[in-house]
Please model this.
Amino acid sequence: MKEVDGTQREEIKLIVERGLPEDGLKKILSLFDKKNILEQSLSEARRLIEEAKSELSVFPPSPERDEMFALADYALQRQK
Model:
């Protein structure tokens, strides 16, 4: 979270420590949206998953390898 300043980081920490009340979660999501943090996180996740799938490509095709590819893709597609 390099994009948030120290005050914002401390505020996020306090909200999390309070158990993420709904108003606090909305505030965090609003900040993340404003700073484009969620899209940056998804972009990094996509990069890491493609890297992992590339590493799996050294194994011969198999149902197990296909399942690992599918699991990696599912991790990006799930919403909650």
Summary: The helical segments are 6-17, 22-35, 37-56, 63-77.
